[in-house]
Amino acid sequence: MAVKTLTRVILGALVGAVASYIVFLAVLAFPHCQNQVIYLNRVSLTWFQDVSIPEQWGFLHNQVSSFSLNTQDGETLQAWHILPLGLYQKHEHRLSEEQPGQRKEITTSISFQLLHDDPEALLVLYFHGAAGTLGSGWRPPSYRAMSAAAPDNIHTVAIDYRGFGASTGTPSEQGLLTDAVTLTEWALEVAGIPASRIVLFGQSLGTAVAISLAHHLATRPDPVLFSGMVLVAPMVDVKMLTATYRIAGVVPILGPVARFPRILAWLNTFIRDKWSSKDKMVEFVHICEQLEGNHSKYYIAILHAEDDYDVPWFHSELLFWQAVNASQSHGTSPEALDGKTQLTKIPLGAAGWAMNQKTRRGVIKKHILKHGFHDKIMSYPIVSLEVLNAFRLASNGA
């Protein structure tokens, strides 16, 4: 009798678990619920902290100017302009006397003038990953890494996308692209920094935003090409991410469904925001390879850690292959590229390995690190080095 009762309890628990999982999958079909899974924008990770006071994250007094940007579709984005440390030191006295707090008019600030008036100023447009705000996790140390290799002239401007932190609105693929375009237009038209002195940096979701932005501007009748892109822990697209993503690196969200490709493919038809970085990367490289002139050079650096349990590093492998394949007039099979990788791989010992592919018009690089997880890698020296390389190699004719 006890055995039968135990069996019924176990069966009931299994049926309940299966039913709950089916309900969970059904809920994911709704766009609002998808948003929370893809963007996690309601998870601020900076509770009880005011992003208009960057000093809370260890920055020097007025080293970071907090201001807002207005998008064409009526949203307001929170932004930070981070001065490089060497430049800050030269103007520390002036900056210490400036009124702190959220800037109503950023163009009157000392930091903006240092950016706008310097013909050698370099600018990183920074696109962060899902969840959190400008001040969450490893992002503040990452901002410092942007200028670590050239602390006198590499500025960084980062934004919270719509629906994140103090920014208004609700996130969507088109919406985040609009946010990125808004930041770019501010950099080009207000700050007066030409695209040849701008590098795009993205991490995780931010890589999809950066690639989408580069693709969008390259496809204009009068193409706009940046000095380069540095992509950390990129994803191929949302469909592949859903099949491989694990919560905290342990619990696979769609692991059970991924065993049945047809069911997974059917569920993927409900995905609204696809973020197909692979396809946009291919088109971007195609366009760059066909353009001529000194400003048609491009530079792409892809970095990923082997111990990244959020976005597995084979996403970078696939993205790298797609980019290299797009640069070849007759294409390259995965097998052929893999063989070439083994021949030209640069071993870096405990730091991992790298590969550089020089194309007709540019350079495509990948670094696979042994360590770094999903976020910590953003503060590593390799990031500082690749940001500097993106500026120098492009300006020297990559």
Structure explained in plain terms:
This protein is of the alpha/beta class and 398 residues long. It has two domains: 2-37; 41-395, 3-Layer(aba) Sandwich (Rossmann fold). It has 15 helices and twelve strands. It has helices at 2-27, 31-38, 85-90, 92-97, 110-116, 139-146, 173-190, 205-218, 238-244, 255-258, 261-268, 277-290, 314-327, 334-344, 381-395, and strands at 64-70, 76-82, 122-127, 154-159, 198-203, 228-232, 246-247, 251-252, 298-305, 346-347, 353-358, 362-369. Strands 1-2-4-3-5-6-9-12-11-10 form a ten-stranded mixed β-sheet, sandwiched between helices. It has a two-stranded antiparallel ribbon with strand order 7-8. Helix 8 runs parallel beside helix 12 (277-290) and helix 12 (277-290) packs parallel to helix 13. The protein is globular. The termini are far apart. The chain crosses the membrane at residues 9-30. Residues 124-279 form the AB hydrolase-1 domain. It holds the Pfam family Abhydrolase_6. Keywords: Membrane, Transmembrane, Transmembrane helix. This is AB hydrolase-1 domain-containing protein.
